[in-house]
Write a structure and sequence with these properties.
The protein is an all-beta fold and about 250 residues long. It contains 1 helix and 17 strands. The protein has 2 domains: about 120 residues, Immunoglobulin-like (Sandwich); about 100 residues, no CATH class. About 0% of the residues lie in helices and about 45% in strands. The strands form 5 sheets. The protein has a 5-stranded mixed sheet with strand order 1-17-16-10-13, with no helix packed on it. Strands 5-2-8-9 form a 4-stranded mixed sheet, with no helix packed on it. Strands 12-11-14-15 form a 4-stranded antiparallel sheet. A hairpin with a 2-residue loop joins strand 3 and strand 4.
Length: about 250
């Protein structure tokens, strides 16, 4: 049955599950300084990555279930992420290969999202996509959930009683209601013939006077989801955001 936009809110307002899911983890990190960033992986944990900070080579870690610690950014704000691959000749050192680069545009703390575009079983070098967002509390206030859509599809998300459509690559800030959990439902637009389809729903943990980051991404194909039609939800609670910026 094709679900029209007219019935979309009814779809997202549907069935309720009472068990609390385990997709939410709490990130506990230090406050930021000038030109700093934390990382969060999308779809899978990031592959082995490095970046250059002056003359130092820094190993960069990114999990898909928790924010990283705080990293210092180059003074230029430009991040060039690279990895190493074995040389053709076994006696030669590994070859440095740049995978992606981005520019930090925020004077204080940024969030670097690292999307793994290929699965671990894909031969060859991993492919990644990068996105940087302003992590300041002025941009992302306390008691809000920042939902970032990494799916290739337009989605509609319902957090508690608030509803919003989010285009691919877009984001939306939802108010977090009182309590220690919130229901999140996500539908994806599958085209004119199929319309809107409910692709995920789960309760997620929240904490008062914190903020949450939820990333939506397309599932990798699996036995349960051969076409990768579902939307993966990853919710992280940030209970130590950067201090407000001084005037």
């Amino acid at each position: 049955m094709v679900i029209s936009r007219r019935n979309l809110i009814k779809l997202l307002a549907g069935s309720v599950i009472t068990l609390l899911g385990s997709a939410s983890l709490i990130a506990d990190t230090a406050n930021s300084g000038p030109q700093s960033f934390r990382t969060l992986a999308v779809r899978r944990a990031a592959p082995e990555l490095y970046y250059q900070l002056g003359s130092k080579e820094i190993r960069l870690f990114a999990s898909d279930s928790a924010l990283s610690g705080l990293y210092e950014a180059p003074s230029s704000g430009k991040l060039e992420l690279y990895t190493y691959t074995p040389a053709d000749e076994p006696d030669l050192p590994p070859v440095k290969v740049v995978l992606a680069e981005t520019q930090l545009k925020t004077a204080g703390e940024s969030l670097l999202l690292i999307a793994r575009m290929t699965s671990e079983n894909t031969p060859g070098l991993p492919k990644i996509g990068l996105r940087t967002v302003d992590a300041s509390v002025e941009m992302h206030p306390l008691n809000t959930m920042r939902v970032i859509n990494f799916s290739n599809r337009r989605v509609a998300s319902k957090v508690a009683d608030e509803f919003a459509e989010i285009p691919s690559g877009g984001e939306y800030f939802f108010q977090i209601p009182p309590g220690n959990k919130v229901w999140v439902k996500v539908a994806a637009y599958e085209g004119v013939e199929k319309g809107w389809k409910l692709r995920n729903r789960a309760p997620n943990a929240v904490l008062p006077d914190t903020r949450s980051i939820m990333v939506l991404s397309d599932a990798f194909p699996s036995e349960r989801d051969p076409k990768g039609e579902n939307i993966v939800l990853r919710n992280v609670i940030d209970r130590n955001p950067p201090a407000p910026q001084s005037d």
